Amino acid sequence: MRASERLTWASGIVAAGAGERVLEVGCGHGVLVSLLVGAGADVVGVDRSATMTAAAGRRNAQAMAAGRVRLVTASLTAADLGAAPFDAVVSFDVRAFWSPPAPEWDVVDRVLAPHGRVVVAFSLMTPDALDRVPAAIGRLAAERGLAVMTVLRAPTSPYESVAVELRRA
Ligand SMILES: C[S@@+](CC[C@H](N)C(=O)[O-])C[C@H]1O[C@@H](n2cnc3c(N)ncnc32)[C@H](O)[C@@H]1O
After folding, report:
1. How far apart are the CA of 107 and the centre of ligand 1, in A?
2. How confident is the model over 1-24, as pLDDT tens digits?
3. d(CA 166, CA 141)
4. 40 contacts 48 by C-beta, under 8 angstroms
5. Nearest ligand 1 atom to alpha carbon 27
6. How many angstroms separate the CA atoms of 127 and 21, rounded?
7. Which of 47, 66, 102, 151 is deepest in the core (most CB within 10 A)?
8. If 0-12 CB within 10 Å is exposed, 13-18 middle and 19+ buried, where does residue 20 land?
9. Residue 3 carries which DSSP code?
10. Are the beta carbons of 24 and 33 closer than 8 angstroms?
11. 5-77+84-168: in CATH 3.40.50.150
12. Domain boundaries defined on the chain
């Protein structure tokens, strides 16, 4: 199945390099997981829905067998993510990252490598979200020592996409 425009765009923003470790939060059907693996990354995908991780597992069976993908069925705050740090954390359309108190950011702070990057992307369904969501992400992430570097937009269909890139302040 062809990957959606928005997830292809998000994968390009993460720009995973060969051998990088990437965490995707709310991996859904595992489409972005596949794209990240295709770019050379080793990926841990977390989703609190067992239906979603099952679908992601079917889509990424080969990469899982090769040890390049691990899927975890849990809420991020309860997930066993192992001890190795991640070079990048990415999510698409996961509201937890802009809904206070957002303890998910504590997890990101814990698992992100010192040089790591974070990409929180969302579909722009209402015009007011263009300012409101990145501002909320910025506030919540700042409490954990992360700062917004850039806010990017893409004219994807059916909704425009927005990606907020962050790094340690
Ligand atoms: C709107 S869907 C987006 C799925 C996929 N990222 C995409 O863009 O197609 C949000 C997904 O995130 C998962 N999710 C939401 N909050 C989560 C959390 N705190 N921890 C783990 N998974 C979460 C949901 O179960 C759902 O599968």
Report:
1. 15
2. 578 999 999 999 999 999 999 999
3. 8
4. no
5. 6
6. 34
7. 47
8. buried
9. P
10. yes
11. yes
12. 5-77+84-168
